[in-house]
Specification:
Cofactor: Zn(2+)
Number of strands: 6
Organism: Streptomyces decoyicus
Oligomer: single chain
Helix content: 40-55%
Radius of gyration: 18 Å
Order of helices and strands: HHHEHEHEHHHHHEEE
Distance between the termini: 35 Å
Largest sheet: 6 strands, mixed
InterPro entries: Carbonic_anhydrase, Carbonic_anhydrase_CS, Carbonic_anhydrase_sf
Shape: globular
Enzyme class: lyase
Keywords: Lyase, Metal-binding, Zinc
Number of helices: 10
Length: 203
């Protein structure tokens, strides 16, 4: 924590060297994309994409889970998505899963989460696509990368996004794109789902 604090302490001085760039941020934001990914500390969207301040509107949740759209039960995740699309007018949405994901691993291995009931309840909301009965590969469940399971999971979250009225409208009108990425934390490789092949391939 000491290193983080020291960096924050000197941040103002470093921003002063880029005064015009940061001054513009005070006038408002116009991000290029909504980037939905996991809360995992090893996943750093700005590092992966090279984004500058103001480029990405981020939504980070445990397991990059997108909850079902339920307007009768407002949620922070739904509000973030709606604000990005309808107010900020982002033109792109990226759902990015990652290798070695603890949330996905817990789901496919059926781990006992009774000691963390909030985590258990949150993950159960995404369990349908990853339960063993839904085609989870036993071999994939024990590999640390969990690549196939994570990719299936990310695709399932993208499908949930399509049920959000703001997203459905944007996609239908052609003013919004939706991509699914897979990031390997141990190599830095990023792959994108190709709808024409149904596979993940290099960007």
């Amino acid at each position: 924590m000491q290193q983080l604090t020291a960096h924050a302490r000197s941040f103002e001085a470093r921003c002063a060297e880029r005064g015009e760039e940061f001054h513009r941020l005070g006038a408002g934001q116009s991000p290029q994309a909504l980037f939905i990914t996991c809360s995992d500390s090893r996943v750093v969207p700005s590092l992966i994409t090279g984004a500058a301040p103001g480029d990405l509107f981020e939504l980070r949740t445990a397991g990059n889970i997108v909850p079902e759209y339920r307007p009768e039960h407002p949620a922070g995740e739904a509000a973030t998505i709606e604000y990005a699309v309808r107010v900020l007018g982002v033109e792109h949405i990226v759902v990015c899963g990652h290798s070695h994901c603890g949330a996905v691993g817990a789901l496919v291995r059926g781990e006992d989460l009774t000691g963390v009931p909030a985590v258990r309840g949150w993950l159960e909301s995404a369990a349908g696509a990853l339960s063993r009965g839904a085609g989870a590969d036993a071999a994939d469940a024990v590999t640390p990368e969990l690549a196939e399971a994570v990719q299936r999971h990310a695709l399932a979250q993208a499908e949930r996004l399509r049920a959000y009225p703001c997203v459905a409208e944007g996609l239908a009108a052609g003013r919004l794109s939706l991509d699914v990425w897979f990031y390997e934390v141990h190599t830095g490789a990023v792959r994108r789902h190709r709808t024409e092949t149904g596979r993940f391939a290099s960007l």
